[in-house]
Amino acid sequence: MSEAAAVVRAFRPNFLILAPLCAGLGVAVAWQQASSPSLLDAVLVLIGALLAHAAVNLFNEYDDFVSGLDLITQRTPFSGGSGALPEVPSAARGVLAAAIGTLTLVIAIGLYFLWLRGLPMLVLGTAGVVLVLTYTRWITRLPILCLLAPGLGFGPIMILGALLALGARIDAMAIAVSVVALLLVSELLLINQIPDAEADRKIGRRHLVIVLGPVKATRLVASLLLGSYLPVVIGMIMGWLSGWSGLALLTLPFSVWIVTRLPRVIDQPAALNAVLGANVAVLLSTLALLIIGLSL
């Protein structure tokens, strides 16, 4: 594999759909509010979200390689990184350069919206950049923050930031939707830490799978995953969300299967991978269905 191919692989392109879906929720809420965002601004919001996710991935790939974690991690299709740098170590500098370049583009888009919308963009934009820069190296050593940071980044920061960037307002609908994303993304990162726990422990990380142990962590996974449907139900009851938002509830039976199956397979790698794959599918489907419901 060439250095250029290793850099592209380090972007983890298969997983980059998550950011446009989360930002897409912000666009859908803005549309529901009848704020009529411009096409250019909507496209820039989606591109900025995609680049921010890519920057997190690239910094994570570089830091995991430099720390030695990549050399002791048992990779799965859903955890442990791309494996690009252990295969092509000479590409490390290129991955770091791509991370810095990608984050620079995110900041440039953020500065445009800061100029367009004013200081409210500064708070969420700064928080997003800080998360990108600190997640792998520092936040993964703080259990509660490690759990919440991914959800905050892809949920309130990305969704509410998209709303402000599009000139829309933050209301109960926006908050309900951002909480759904917060819970789902935090759950995604938590469940994907289960196969990596022993390797993470060896390099000094301290996330909740390490602190609680895998069995107790599966209970927290269940609480987050099933709890992510509550904002939709409450939002519909309170009139914050339209009845069409209930489309997101179609994935609930699959989530029930995940949380009942997970504790039984934490020591069975092949079966665990199947659950991790189903979890990714449920998360992406739930977000997509919620976007469709909001748009209708």
From TrEMBL:
It holds the Pfam family UbiA. It is a multi-pass membrane protein. InterPro entries: UbiA_prenyltransferase, UbiA_sf, UBIAD1. The chain crosses the membrane at residues 40-59, 95-115, 121-138, 145-166, 172-195, 207-226, 232-259, 271-294. It comes from the Bacteria. Coiled coil: none annotated. Pathway: Quinol/quinone metabolism; menaquinone biosynthesis. Its main location: membrane. It is found in: Membrane. Keywords: Cell membrane, Membrane, Menaquinone biosynthesis, Transferase, Transmembrane, Transmembrane helix. This is Prenyltransferase.
